[in-house]
Amino acid sequence: MRQKQSFIKNLDTIVTYIILILVALVFFFPCLWLILASFSKSGTIYSFDGFFPTEYSLDSFRMLFTDTAIYNYPRWFLNTLFIASFSCILSTFLVILTAYTMSRFQFKARKPIMKTTLVLGMFPSFMGMIAVYLLMTQFNLINNHWGLILIYSAGAPMGYLTQKGFFDTIPTSIDEAARIDGANNFTVFRKINLPLSMPIIVYTALTSFTWPWSDFILPKLLLKEKNMYTVAEGLMSLGETEFARFAAGSIFIAVPIVILYFFLVKYMVNGMASGAVKG
């Protein structure tokens, strides 16, 4: 009986690993193809032998940063970094404050606001693109990076529900004990709840950075001059014969996300423990 159970368990483990490996290969193949395509010597997708290039070269990466007369990738990269960084800071600040307020304070409009944001969140964001464009025109924010930052930051608090759910898991008895000791609301938030919330703050910062970093629709709508483009908009403006440069730019744009993730992941793992000690 034990041998039969052990055989079934081992078989289940083997089947699980096979399925996971197959799924991993399905997701890995497009990444591998894009990496190899970025080293294509011809630069165009029409010279590929099946899925892969016939000849390989580093020219596409060299041209990406040196041949900037028409396609100024370094400028686009800096534009995107500027927009994503400031959007990340402002969005994280606004989302965390909104989530904390909705989680910890009781007021008459609390439930109607929650229901309204939940309903509005069901509609795709591009439905309001015409209204956004008209507003940006009235405020003279067309071809202005701060206009994008304003839109990203102003819309971020609508997605506060995940953060609110995290704050709901922190016992309110901790807040009450701090208030008995004379702490005000700001002190409770800054010294008690904020350290305990490091994992959700890091998650919010990552998502607030990646959205403007990879967004294409809003920059395409508001940025009309090539020197103002973001990376996503700039790469889409490349010609058909520049596919290798497109692939190289797509790979390089993933670097900041990877660096930011590895820099912040330790705070997600250790946040609860360190926050409890500080509290």
Automatic annotation (TrEMBL):
Keyword entries, A-Z: Cell membrane, Membrane, Sugar transport, Transmembrane, Transmembrane helix, Transport
InterPro entries tied to this protein: BP-dep_ABC_trans_perm, MetI-like, MetI-like_sf
One GO CC term on file: plasma membrane
GO-annotated molecular function: ABC-type maltose transporter activity
Domain of life the protein comes from: Bacteria
Bilayer-crossing regions: 12-36, 76-97, 118-136, 142-161, 200-223, 243-264
Topology of the protein relative to the lipid bilayer: Multi-pass membrane protein
Annotated protein name in UniProt: Sugar ABC transporter permease
Organism: Lachnoclostridium phytofermentans
Organism taxonomic ancestry: Bacteria, Bacillati, Bacillota, Clostridia, Lachnospirales
